[in-house]
Amino acid sequence: MSKPILLTPSQARKIILHAAGLSRHGQFGKGKEAAYKLINHLGFVQIDTNYIVERAHHHSIAARVPDYQTEWLTQLQAAGRIFESWTFASGYVPMHEYRFSLPVKQIFAAKRALQTPLEINLMRKVLDRIAREGPLMARDFENDRLTKSSGWWDWRPSKVALERLHFDGRLMTMRTGNFQKVYDLPENIIPASVDTSMPAPEEYARHVIVRSLKALGIANFKDIARSGWYAKQNLIKPALQKMVSEGKVYTVLVKGLTDSTLYMLPEYKNKKITVAGDVFILSPFDILNVFRQRLLKFFHFDYMVECFVPAPKRKYGYFSLPVLLGDTFVARMDSKAERKQQILIIHNLHFEPIELSKPTIVKIAKAIKEFARFNQCSSVEFKKSNKKTYLKIMQQLVG
């Protein structure tokens, strides 16, 4: 077993940003192939339905692939190169890693083992109909609701059956252009060349560890386990210890951080990484942001998406987007795309307590203009900011 790798906080941030694909604009190139390379590298791009601004999966890719077009995800799915699956959330995964989704599906099937005869019969009917008729949407099934729906958590029985079949792997989904799910049998979606064998427990655990560290760069055991496809911690821990002893994973010490052992892949031991100082407006569900304590530890950025917080308790806004400059979070932008009017409304542009030069403010303004265009908006309207001098410059450049 080698000695821990000693890193400064700055070196650690560089590794984390490079792993996240945020060391510079276009780190994976341009075009649809760059979008695939990104998904293949991260192993998972989270899907979210919130449409205040463009949905999280498109937003996360667009932040990294300069010319990104939203239809590319549909095309990559149709070509059998990615599929929708569950890890710690729902997201897009490279198709060649399909077999590593099977243990997750097995877990979901076991959780749903105790079902009523009525539920089991309905699921059989749903499977039989899709086998006979081909791909179907939830609306293609009769409205078997007995009471009025009160939201997505109160699905009608046929929708529940479709989702259960999706979670346990007996169905897979594609997405329409307007984000609706289309359910189909796996054999109609998975290319014949894809390995569909169940991985052995240790092989699965090793995959989880490598996948997590590829996307996170540096992480503690808790972060690896949390991002790891519902893998049991008692499965990951011995595999991680073994990989460390084999030199396939390194332990890391970061100056000033002593609360837990950190890990990284050997490829970063001597890698020269330059952070370009570009501006990224990120989704709340970006891989860099979803682990809140990790974000605070490495970037000193205390962030929470406040759409889950009661309105009176919100500090920055309903859907505040982190603004990253180089390796520093400089602002939070609570915005909404009014698509019919083609206006990106920024309800609150809150700057962190960092002095910014005018050239830096110009860079942020340019990023906001590009973000507006990505959201089909031709103009930007600012409502509020905690830095009036910065806002004035922004309005001259963007408004």
Describe this structure in words.
The protein is α+β, with helices and mostly antiparallel strands. It has two domains: 1-112 and 168-273, Winged helix-like DNA-binding domain superfamily/Winged helix DNA-binding domain (Arc Repressor Mutant, subunit A), CATH 1.10.10.10; 304-397, Aminopeptidase, CATH 3.40.630. Helices cover 36% and strands 18% of the residues. The chain contains 13 helices and 14 strands. A five-stranded mixed beta sheet has the order 10-11-12-13-14, covered by helices on one side. Strands 1-8-9-7 form a four-stranded mixed beta sheet. Strands 2-4-3 form a three-stranded antiparallel beta sheet. Strand 12 and strand 13 (343-351) form a beta hairpin. Helix 8 crosses helix 10. The radius of gyration is 22 Å and the shape is globular. The protein starts with a strand and ends with a helix.
- Strand line-up across the major sheet: 10-11-12-13-14
Can you tell me the CATH architecture of the largest domain? Orthogonal Bundle
Largest sheet: 5 strands, mixed
Q: What is the radius of gyration? A: 22 Å
SSE order: EHHEHHEEHHHEEHEHHEEEHEEEHEH
The oligomeric state is single chain
Helix content: 25-40%
Secondary structure: number of strands: 14
Number of helices: 13
How would you state the average pLDDT, rounded? 93
* Total separate domains: 2
Derived structural class? alpha+beta
The CATH C-level class name of the largest domain: Mainly Alpha
- Low-pLDDT residue spans: 149-153
Fourth CATH level, the homologous superfamily of the largest domain: Winged helix-like DNA-binding domain superfamily/Winged helix DNA-binding domain
Query: In what range is the share of β-strand residues?
Result: 15-25%
